[in-house]
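Human:
If only I could read backbone structure tokens as easily as an amino acid sequence. I am handing you a single protein, as its sequence and its fold in token form. I hope you can help me see how the letters and the tokens relate. Thank you; the sequence and its tokens follow:
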Amino acid sequence: MEGSGAPPGKRLLVLGAGPAQLGLLAAARERGLFVIALDRDPAAPGFQYADRRAIISTEDEPGIERLAATERVDGLIAPGTDWPVPIAARVAERLRLPHPLSPEAAALTVSKIRQRERFAERGLPQPGWQVVSEPEANVAVPVPCVVKAPDRQGQRALTLVPSTDDLPVAIAHALAESRSGLAVVEEIVEGPEVQVGAFSIGRRFFPLTVTDRLTADLPAFGVALAHVWPSEAAGDEAFRVADAVAAAVGITDGPTHLELRIGPGGPQVMEEAGRLGGGHNAELCREAVGVDLNALALSAALGEPVDESELRPAPQVGGACIRFLVPPEEGVLRGVTGVEEARAVEGVRELWIYREPGHAFGPFRMGADRAGAVLVTGESREQALARADEAARLIRFETVNAEAVV
């Protein structure tokens, strides 16, 4: 572990220092907190904001608890990625630290099976689904369908299955990645994807943003190209469903990130996360409606009161967009050009480059090799998206074949 002497501010442990944690880590540094960040990747970009860094996996619960106790932290938080969320809640409970999520609610947020069961109990709209434990299982969900590991984040171990003949291979892949030895087969809901960002205080639910999740034609199903606000696909009904979902999962305080499909009959619940969105959703919320979700999440992690006045969204711009940057090919990163030109594009608020020269890209892994992102605003969502595309076109990731690297 590396670090410096502790300043007088509160001490916060952040689980993860990757791209999904950059906004929260920057906000913690700006606030003057003493930040201890952990990640298994020594080159994680978020370490630049840490006063101390620890090379520990976000899944190493005993190691995280030892670190939290040794550092005498005032709170810990797992922003941006799913699996560390219940670890943070359990460690906080054992160390008697404040935390917005109970261990029970946190556990629900990382189990797609338990979520599906709870949604069924509450009569919430969701796709048809089935749990399977072997590749040759008799599947009742109609094909085409989606097969996924129920305890992995995002698109990891997720397969779009076009025919019945492809089911066994897809299920075997999901089972191999599953922590529980189970896989979930889900009905495909035709319609746009949206995300709902919200925050709760004492069971009072405050919806903040609905964004459209635009996907790219990349060699993986459902890989996000951009998050765009305001949504064209969903309105107030998405907020009402999000409120019911948070109550069903048992989330009383802190940020939530809900993924929905807008089908012919209305919103269908895909999955709920008890954390900030991992695609710079908090920074988009700040620019779009003037609510600083990163600051609110920090307060919740430290047990500080949050005033309802901080949760009154007021549109700041006509449109906002997060555009993800994807490297053009496999290889080892040699350098990045066009960054300053992209920053100069009108409406660009922030631009992140995640990788340093020497990073090896590929083969493409469900968004894991995103190379960066740009946050752009405009007078309309269309203008924001166009400006984001313009900025993205200016950035070039220069790579060389791995064999050529000595």
Observations:
- The first helix runs from residue 22 to 31.
